[in-house]
Specification:
globular; 4-stranded mixed beta sheet; 8-stranded mixed beta sheet; UDP-N-acetylmuramoyl-L-alanine:D-glutamate ligase; 9 helices; about 300 residues; single chain; alpha/beta
Length: about 300
């Protein structure tokens, strides 16, 4: 099922799984063996590559999505509609023998989130047969560690073509084998150091580790403390604004999308870091995965403290 006229040229290709997500927003978690009333329910996208493709498309960046197959169930049809309606390039393969993957996410009033999902190896294996023909005409490839070794084929193709690769590695910089295998193929690598995702190492230590394996730009997100970005000897630290977080689901993907937006515009390292931090902060102040307004994010970015 084609998403749009295949003759169009994408600026970025996002590669990853198609996952539908059910989002529930709670005031607080119930006691064990009890229930609670949820405040809001949203149907959403459950994987970063797909989220980023939609956000960038909303910001008038022509995007292509190369993803896993979906089933003929209502979740698969809903996903196809999301991408078709927004004009994302690519083909969503529909297989009646598969069930579209589903994730369930619970977000509480503290801004924390807990998710549940059941990856289907048969569905994930369809990534290995996905058509990469949109890649050569693009300016950037985005991949995520969630899809594990399925990302190696497009990464290797991008490297061969001289196309920069943006990798979301999160906490896996702690694993030397994965660091070399994934980050060693990346141009830009986004990682985390916050305790919630197993870490709390120095951002500078993590950034240097990424640069040592060949990454050109190391992007370290620090949850409520902003970000640290490093390229060569250039370093930028940006603090978050004073915004109350109500739903952190999609914050990392929003940060990535905003950083990519700035990268494609040729912005400075500081401007990219400011804009990404501002955009992710705006997202956290709202429930669900609504694409932040560019003008609002740019205005907030100008107000942020950096060093």
């Amino acid at each position: 099922m084609n998403l749009k006229n295949p003759s169009s040229t994408p600026e970025i290709v996002c590669f990853g799984s198609f996952i539908a997500m059910n989002l529930l927003v709670l005031d607080e978690w119930p006691q064990r063996n009890f229930g609670c009333v949820f405040k809001e329910y949203r149907d959403s996208i459950g994987q970063d590559a797909a989220m980023i493709a939609l956000m960038l498309q909303d910001w008038n960046i022509q995007t292509a999505m190369i993803g896993s197959a979906v089933g003929t169930d209502f979740r698969g049809k809903w996903l196809v509609d999301q991408f078709n309606d927004r004009g994302v390039l690519g083909e969503v393969r529909v297989d009646p023998n598969l069930s579209t993957m589903l994730a369930i996410l619970l977000s509480d009033s503290s801004g924390d989130r807990t998710y549940f999902w059941q990856p289907d190896p048969q569905v994930l294996a369809t990534l290995d047969t996905a058509d990469l023909s949109l890649l050569p005409s693009s300016k950037l490839l985005y991949v995520d560690w969630y899809d594990e070794d399925h990302i190696l084929r497009p990464m290797d193709e991008a490297v061969k073509l001289g196309i920069p690769v943006y990798l979301n590695l999160e906490h896996l910089h702690e694993n030397p084998d994965i660091l070399a295998r994934y980050a060693g193929r990346a141009t830009i690598c986004q990682a985390v150091t916050d305790a919630a995702q197993r870490g709390e190492e120095s951002p500078l230590t993590v950034a240097k580790r990424l640069l040592e394996v060949g990454v050109e730009i190391a992007v370290i997100t620090l949850a409520g403390e902003g970000c640290f970005v490093m390229r060569g000897t250039e370093m930028v630290r940006v603090q978050t604004p004073n915004i109350k977080a109500v739903d952190s689901f999609g914050a990392g993907a929003t940060f990535s999308a905003a950083f990519i937006y700035g990268y494609l515009q040729g912005w400075s390292l500081e401007k990219m870091a400011r804009f990404a931090t501002a955009t992710a902060s705006i997202k956290c102040s709202r429930v669900g995965l609504e694409t932040p307004n560019l003008s609002e994010a740019q205005k907030l970015a100008e107000q942020l403290h950096s060093e």
